Amino acid sequence: MNIHQFSAGFQLGDAISQEMLEIKRLLAKENYEGKIYAENVFSSDRKYAEKITKAKIKPNDVIVYHHSIHSKVLDFLLQFPNKKILIYHNVTPENFFEPYDLRFSYLLRKGREDLEIIREHFQHSFAVSQFNLNELIHLGFKQSRIFPLHLNFQKWNLGSLDQKTKVKSFQNPSFLFVGRIAPNKRQDDLIRFARTWKSTYGNQFSLRMLGFCNPDQQSYLDELNFMISQLDLQEEVKIISYVDESMLKKIYFESNLFLSMSEHEGFCVPLMEAMHFQLPVVAYSAGAVPETLGDAGILFQTKDFDLLAKEIDKIFQNIEFRNSILYQQNQRLDLYLKSTSILPLLEVIKS
């Protein structure tokens, strides 16, 4: 029996791709083999995943499908009578993309419609957060369960840098956001916050927004660059396209606060990464973000940037306040990492 995993796309830096790699690694420890397949695979990532056209599915193989958007993958899988397991990562609401990318907006709308087809043809279903599970329950999925994302932070512990020995400087704010350059992530609001911060506290700060931008959504990236120019933030605000993990690690080390304005998240792995790298997390309360943070970090309910700037300034000025945030984040991260297990997936594979 092979356990094959499928998704619409595979890109080494994104959360679903990382999850598939971790599941494959954990299943291998249980002596299960299998491959990762996707409709879209970057040529540089083809040592990790193959295109679905190369998939060879035998009668006893188990199919694990990671769903987040419409693609040809679902139709491909439906032709097989094999046991099928859904892992639901959420579908971003289409309205975020309508002003920028109508095709992508259509794929999101179809992706949500696909859930009704999946419900009728898949034997088992998991969601990576309670927020996502609530959607499945609302759509009539029976006996769905939470299957927490497996976060492999061991990869960060390799190399010369180590957060346990390196003391992070909080002298000048170095804000960071990691996530796709996309309208639902609201990098435009991060830029508006930077303007407020500069007008209140001066220009001794930086804001870096790190993420891949879909070429079809270039108009949103153009909008962001125009804002940076018009608001005279070229020196302080930088957009960095996706980098490899060693550079990402370096950027996490160089930053001292993680700030998220995102308005839709099915989980948001970078929040956990920021905790791992000892960055206080300040995030807009939307989607699964409150659930991911638990009692850690700072959530804000409204985008009042003047009030938010004052709250964030306290983190930099008040060591006790900052340390209390970091302590709660460490507690939350430890609790979450202990909650992950491959056992729920193994149970349905063997059933």
TrEMBL record:
<dbReference type="InterPro" id="IPR001296">
    <property type="entry name" value="Glyco_trans_1"/>
</dbReference>
<feature type="domain" description="Glycosyl transferase family 1">
    <location>
        <begin position="171"/>
        <end position="325"/>
    </location>
</feature>
<dbReference type="GO" id="GO:0009103">
    <property type="term" value="P:lipopolysaccharide biosynthetic process"/>
</dbReference>
<keyword id="KW-0808">Transferase</keyword>
<protein>
    <submittedName>
        <fullName>Glycosyltransferase</fullName>
    </submittedName>
</protein>
<dbReference type="Pfam" id="PF00534">
    <property type="entry name" value="Glycos_transf_1"/>
</dbReference>
<dbReference type="GO" id="GO:0016757">
    <property type="term" value="F:glycosyltransferase activity"/>
</dbReference>
